Amino acid sequence: MSSQQSTSGAEFGLRAVQFSRLTRRGILLGLSLPQLIVLATGVLSIVGALYAGGGILLAWTAPIWLLCAALAWTPVGGRKLIEWVPVTFRWVARTQKRQTVFRRRVVKPRPAGTLALPGDAAALREWEDPETGAAMVHDPHQQTLTAIVGVSHPAFVLLDPGEQERRVATWGRVLATTCRSGRIARLQVCERTLPDGGSGLVEWWQRHGHDDGSWTSTVYRELIDRAGPAGERHATTISLALDLKAAARQVRTNGGGMKGAAAVLRQEMTTLVTALRAAELTVTGWLTPAQVAVILRSAYDPATAAILERHTDIGRTLATAGPVAVTESWGRLRSDSAHHAVLWVSEWPRSQVYPGFLAPVLLSSGIQRAFSLVFTPIRSDQAARDIRRKKTELISDAAQRQKMGQIEDASQTAEYGDVLQQEADLTAGHGVLRYTGLISVSAPTPEELDTAVAAIEQAAIQAPCETRRLVGQQAQAFTVAALPLCRTV
User: Fold this and answer.
1) Before 229, cis peptide (omega within 30)?
2) What percent of the chain shows pLDDT beyond 90?
3) d(Cα 17, Cα 425) in Å, to the nearest integer?
4) What Å distances lie between residue 89 and 82, 192, 221, 332, 390, CA to CA?
5) Rounded to 5°, angle at Cα 300 from 135 and 479
6) Can you tell me the mean pLDDT for 299-308?
7) d(CA 120, CA 139)
8) Which of 26, 68, 131, 405 could be bridged to 32 by S-S, CB 3.0 to 4.6 A?
9) pTM of this prediction?
10) Are 170 and 278 in contact (CB under 8 A)?
């Protein structure tokens, strides 16, 4: 009896999981290409000085090789100094070209079918599928076509361990479906907190209330009108991006152009909906252009989110859904009615954790934020080549360190173990995905934004995850973290 109970508990209990570590390998001995270039420059200056003039010339060239050593080895903000050079250069170039400031030209109409978004997102185009009515967003630069579906689900943390384990397994099959397709560029899961406009309470009162004009019904109706907008709700969307290059043959078979691409994307949409229903996630429907417009407008102008929800006849046009003004600084973003900051989940838990480890971040109350997970499926042949390359580099680096007398540390051994585990999973038929986590935090004032960012960082520590604020690319990161457009940063 005891053995059967233990077996049953092991079968239906919640199992811990462990993430692979962020790869920090370089070309040689853990050094990246920029580090090798500056170190080679420093070494050449030393050797040239010794051959040309001896110690005197070596002293004259000291600023060169000392600067190279500082650039290659000095860490600042989790990066070496040389790795900050391209980031700083791009930021200065964008600042000089005034690309960090966006002002909508009110008197100049936008071309039909375009999204009124700033920056590189201005190239996005809208396509409404005539069969499903879904809004499809075309990115001509990255050659993707994206559709967005709304989902609802029960509170995961309130389920029993056996049910949580079962739902985790079914969600894994959803991700495996995207890997086997070969035509999916990315999959984005976006979970947002929004000020509740009170529509849920109004709908409940319309279904269950009795508005008979009595004193009780009048008090209830006034209470709903006043207290409804003060609430907070969570909304989850899943965005599916079709790779038009990988699906070029199928697009031509279906007639070519946007019509053929939409037909191919509809096939992937049907497959995804079937997988989501098998995972017991309630699909609320593919978002229409009006619903996408509300999401875009609410992201840049959170003060109007409750108004747009309560009034279903305004703010439903994609041509006017973008911001009126955007100002980007080094570490934050200012839009119509809010200040924003984007955090990158730079380190996932290194120890084993249970699937609900993100609860401190996702259940944080009083903070307006959007949490996005962007999954990039890797083809099995490409994943196999990448794993073989990683193994070869890790074994070669270990041999070089052994020749030089360096000691193998635990992090390098753990990274090699992660590669072996990925190889075993790929051999067993599982898919390989690269995932990126971004958190967009919004607040009305800079002071409130700093307080909210600090609270999210503390919640991430409890998760336990490591977060870093992205700098020099806040505008682009915001479109990835806060908007369900399935883009990359």
Assistant:
1) no
2) 31
3) 14
4) 11, 33, 58, 18, 31
5) 65
6) 85
7) 10
8) 26
9) 0.84
10) yes
Q: Determine the pLDDT at residue 11.
A: 47
Q: What is the largest CA-CA distance in the chain?
A: 101
> Whole-angstrom Cα distance, residue 279 to residue 229?
32
CB atoms within 10 A of CB 427: 10
**Radius of gyration over alpha carbons of the chain, in Å?**
26
Helix/strand/coil for 247: coil
d(CA 292, CA 251): 25
CA-CA distance, 474 to 334, in Å (whole number)? 10
Cα–Cα distance measured from residue 483 to residue 92, given in angstroms and rounded to the nearest whole number: 26
> Which tokens sit at 208?
């269950």
Rounded CA separation 198/20 (Å) = 42
Query: Tell me: the pLDDT tens digits for 156-204?
Result: 877 888 888 888 888 888 888 888 888 999 999 999 987 765 555 666 6
Q: Could you tell me the two tokens for 20?
A: 């692979």
Rounded Cα–Cα distance for residues 374 and 149 (Å): 15
Question: Half-sphere exposure of 162 toward its Cβ, with a 13 Å CA cutoff?
Answer: 5
pLDDT at 82: 85
C-alpha distances (whole Å) from 419 to each of 104, 373, 374, 383, 413 are 48, 22, 21, 11, 10
**pLDDT one-digit tens code per residue, 75-131:** 887 778 888 888 888 899 988 988 889 988 877 777 777 788 888 888 899 888 888
Cβ proximity of 70 and 42 under 8 Å = no
- Sign (positive or negative) of CA dihedral 230, 342, 143, 141: positive
